[in-house]
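Thread: quick sanity check before group meeting

JM: Hey all, I'm pulling together slides for Thursday and realized we never actually wrote out the predicted structure for the chain we discussed last week. Dropping the sequence here so it's in one place. If anyone has concerns about the input, flag it before I start.
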Amino acid sequence: MQTLPTEISQLFEYLEKGASAFHVTAHSKKVLQQAGFMELRLSDPWALEQGGRYFCCPFDTTLYAFTIGQDCSLSNGIHIGSAHTDFPAIKVKPNPEIFTHGYMQLNTELYGSPILSSFFDRSLSLAGKVVTRGPSYDRPIGHLIDFQRPMVCLPNLAIHMNRTANEKGSPVDNQKHLLPILGTLDDMLNKDSTLVRLLAKELDVEAKEILDYDLCLYNLDRPELAGITEEFISAPRLDDITSVCALIHGLAESRNRSRVNLVCLFDNEEIGSLSKQGADSFLPAVIIGKIWQSFGKSMVDCMTDLSGGLMVSADVAHAYHPNYPAVQDVTNYPVINQGFVFKSASNQSYAWDCEALASMIALCEDRQIPYQRFAKHSNTKGGGTIASILSSHLPVRTIDTGAGILAMHSSREMMGVKDQIALSRFAKAFFE
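JM (edit): ok, ran it. Output follows.
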């Protein structure tokens, strides 16, 4: 394998450590702390300084990181980069134990819209957060957990019992067919076994102390270079760790003396963003308002200054698939390794206006960063991002961008090495 470029090494580290939205956020905190960022609490008053580098995690799956230029004038506005920490998954329900003819299985539910067939017949593990009893009822203690080994499996039905599987596929009943097998009953597993006891053993705590959990099944595959010249990246969770990695490292490595730069990492994008930790909340305005308030400015001043700023929403894009050409627009189809992607849609499902996009195109051309354009096929609805949601709350010009990938929402996706490098270079240039 070739020596990895810095941008790809950073991405691989994120992919290996980001087994859940909790873990993506925790790794982002580590990167920022190593770069000299100071952690703030949302509940505290903020005494910020010019030249300061800060971050705040209001919730365990959301993060706001920002820098204040040494010669910063808040009237110069702000540059905001946003992405999401969550990804489509299969999550574990409460009271999940199911015992069937000697098997122990787990009851699950869908999170977002994963390609379900991609989770069958591969090694799956469990990761997320476990909460135990604290010193008082309103102060529970959270623990990150990642088993980091094959824990459950979802075997396909043999073709002898489903003769049309290759012609018609294997329809998945979410309640019947997404019950992963944890093991067979023996001395270790029996009908008195519970997932809580297994979690307690892994965390070395008493089972009675565990009050709740938020766990997902995840693909254990490691990220790999693929292709005849290793020009592709094949890995789980490219959506949207590619963008998180580019923005966090871009902010940490950039220097701008005259402006506020901000990265917002949100949860729940895959289910609509309407939550306290999602993009469709008042929290971004609160964070930005506290920055402006620290320098003696009002919320009206803040919103006025924001109008001179710029925001990019970084999320993956649909790359051209040579086996399915009919699904793409006839002139705006990004090809892997030809540059990262600017997305636009007249109905604003991808946020866009001419001036904002023109300024970013000019930036890319000035820095010789390869980019491409994406527009949806006119007969398809396509997807959406957090960009339009955010721009409906904040008076700032907004554009959609990201790296083009294939197999989006599969348990293993594919992208180009050059595209991640281009996205990382763009993120750094945007903040500089």
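AS: nice. The chain has a mean pLDDT of 93. The chain has eleven helices and 20 strands.
JM: adding both to the slides.
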